């Protein structure tokens, strides 16, 4: 029972931290038309960026948005795994874990997203391969192994979020950093 409580507490902490990481910035209050502000002081966003020592992953705006959508989908799959674990619904665990496991499409997307940050792709792919262990354990109806594989997957998830941060860049910067042309339209949506 204590192990289950610790697992749920870890998941809640992970979800809270991810929600804070992906939270939209607070709106900037309007400035009166007659107010002139001239300052060389860094903006709040620049100050925050300096405090965040994680390694940047350069992404075009549409890529950054797509990646955040994927992260929210991953969190939904994690929530479904926890819910299914409570009732030992192994087919539901397998289905949810399959959405975060490795696929050729996921591999291509991680490779493309990490084109400008050495090491990102490898860590992202390792996360997806780790999630495959949950699927295998669910197929075997092995609750203890599901929990062990789930813990390893969450560790891979939190390690990635602790290492990397999005850096939204323009097309010329993307091309310079990746030596590839910027994707157009739906090329990112496999």
Helix fraction?
55-70%
User: How far apart are the first and last residues' alpha carbons, in Å?
Assistant: 41 Å
Q: Strand order, main sheet: write it out.
A: 1-2
Secondary-structure-based class equals mainly alpha
Number of helices: 8
Tertiary shape: elongated
Examine the coordinates and then state which fold CATH places here, giving the name of the CATH topology. Four Helix Bundle (Hemerythrin (Met), subunit A)
The proportion of strand residues reads 5-15%
- Please state the oligomeric state of the protein chains shown: single chain
- What's the CATH architecture name? Up-down Bundle
How many DSSP E strands? 2
Count of discrete domains: 1
Question: For the record, what CATH class applies?
Answer: Mainly Alpha
Give the biggest beta sheet. Answer: 2 strands, parallel
The run of helices and strands is HHEHHHHHEH
Query: Taking Cα atoms only, what radius of gyration do you get, to the nearest Å?
Result: 19 Å
Low-confidence stretches: 186-190
């Amino acid at each position: 029972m204590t192990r289950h409580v610790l697992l749920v507490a870890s998941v809640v902490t992970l979800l809270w931290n991810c929600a804070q990481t992906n939270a939209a910035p607070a709106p900037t209050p309007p400035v009166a038309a007659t107010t002139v502000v001239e300052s060389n002081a860094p903006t709040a966003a620049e100050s925050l960026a300096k405090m965040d020592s994680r390694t940047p992953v350069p992404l075009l705006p549409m890529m950054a948005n797509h990646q955040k959508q994927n992260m929210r989908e991953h969190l939904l799959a994690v929530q479904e795994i926890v819910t299914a674990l409570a009732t030992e619904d192994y087919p539901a665990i397998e289905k949810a874990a399959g959405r975060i496991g490795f696929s050729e499409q996921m591999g291509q997307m991680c490779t493309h997203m990490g084109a400008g940050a050495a090491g990102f792709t490898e860590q992202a792919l390792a996360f997806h391969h780790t999630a495959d262990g949950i699927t295998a354990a669910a197929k075997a109806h092995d609750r203890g192994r599901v929990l062990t594989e789930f813990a390893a997957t969450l560790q891979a998830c939190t390690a990635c979020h602790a290492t990397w941060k999005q850096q939204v860049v323009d097309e010329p910067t993307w091309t310079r950093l990746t030596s590839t042309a910027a994707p157009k339209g739906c090329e990112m949506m496999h």
